[in-house]
Amino acid sequence: MKFVDEAFIRVEAGDGGNGCVSFRREKYIPFGGPNGGDGGDGGSVYLVADNNINTLVDFRYQRIHRAERGHNGMSKDMTGRGGVDLNVPVPVGTRVFEQDTGELIGELLETGQRLLVAQGGFHGIGNARYKSSTNRAPRQSKPGTPGERRELQLELILLADVGLLGFPNAGKSSLIRQISSARPKVADYPFTTLYPNLGVVRVGQNRSFVVADIPGVIEGAAEGAGLGIQFLKHLARTRLLLHLVDIAPLGDQEEPSAQVRKIEGELTAFGGDLTDKERWLVLNKTDLLPAEEYAERRAQILAELDWTAPVYGLSALTGQGTSELVNALMHRLEELKQHPDTTPTAAVYAAAPLAEWDMPAAPDDDTEWHPLG
User: Where are the domains of the chain?
Assistant: First the structure.
């Protein structure tokens, strides 16, 4: 299955500046001749591959990109200033198509690579350029040509930054609904998710990351049981894994620590780099437990697992604790881009919540809850 993120934008290059019609007027020089200058070239529009951008989500808010127009020529043989080129940053791996024809214009596969998508207009010509021995006082000039206008389709083959891992009904789909605009199906029975879902989490301007939700993994998945094994290869292409467990299992469901150990066994059996990938533990459904009981269960789980990586408690249903998790993930992903081999910094571990910290008081009934602040 191929994940594609796309956006439609309009790019407008700047028009060329017009040429000037002017004559030299100076005392004692009755026939100064033409001195109208040329206009300036219009600015062009370039797409530039930027490794600091993950998704195309920002292009859905700003769809029109215009370069500066060239300035008109002036008297005294002064050429108009050229328009400044517009460099639009896009994620590495972006493919650019002509929207009307579907023609591939180019691909941006390396950081810093530039692609011209709209050529600026050519400058106009002033009347000084038309003078000759037979045309001593030309009054004609040439206007600048208009810049290109194009409707483009940007397409990005997504490799999710964060992968959600866990047993069926652990709350993975609820979490991705809470922190992104993705709307996967949520129900009270196992295997509600039948195919991977992607959600773009937007933290701020040019700060976003992609989360992948795959079908729940069960015991025996490495041998073909269940659905999750069909998509574990997608998790292998992520930078970080979130291991969701239900901290308040019902009925005959296994304890959270036992669920974690079983999935770890399936990751080992699957092979690849999944076992070596950075993995955070997320204790979901904390809203079902009183604060004291949650603190006790959390401590018990961490002791049984001998867990040393970051741990977060939250409620995917109400949004409690999701803001802290999202901010820590964004911080960690930015670290990994700059230094891929580093371990989480003290700031990320410091953000790993304590019982009182990761269970903020529920909002008042008449207050709208905003999990991302």
Answer: 4-157, 162-351
**Tokens 């990761």 belong to residue:** 358
From residue 365, give the alpha-carbon distance in Å to each of 67, 361, 362, 368. 48, 12, 9, 8
Which residues have a Cβ under 8 Å from the Cβ of 303 and sit 6 or more positions away? none
Fold of 4-157: Spo0b-associated Gtp-binding Protein; Chain: A, (2.70.210)
| pLDDT digits (tens), the chain, 373 positions | 455 678 899 999 999 999 999 998 888 887 888 999 999 999 999 999 988 887 787 888 889 999 999 999 998 989 999 999 999 999 888 899 999 998 999 999 888 999 999 999 999 999 999 998 888 889 899 999 999 999 999 988 666 788 888 887 778 888 888 888 766 545 444 444 445 677 788 888 778 888 887 765 545 444 444 444 555 666 766 788 899 888 887 766 778 888 888 888 877 777 666 778 889 999 988 888 888 998 999 999 999 999 888 999 998 888 888 889 999 999 998 888 777 667 776 666 655 554 333 433 333 433 333 333 3
DSSP letter for each residue of 110-142: STT-EEEEEPPPPPPB-GGGG--SS-SS----B
Token output for 288: 């079902």
* 3-state DSSP assignment of residue 368: coil
Which among 217, 205, 207 is positioned nearest to 161, based on CA atoms? 207
Residue found under tokens 């600015």: 43
The two beta strands, 104-108 and 162-165, are: unpaired
HSE-up of 122 (CA within 13 Å, CB side)?
3
Burial of 330 (0-12, 13-18, 19+ CB in 10 A): buried
Burial of residue 361 (number of CB atoms within 10 Å: 0-12, 13-18, 19+): exposed
CA angle 141, 144, 146 (to 5 degrees): 150
Two structure tokens written together for 188 = 């009270």
CA–CA separation, 371 vs 143, rounded Å? 54
Q: What is the CATH number of domain 162-351?
A: 3.40.50.300
Check if 4-157 and 162-351 are the same fold: no
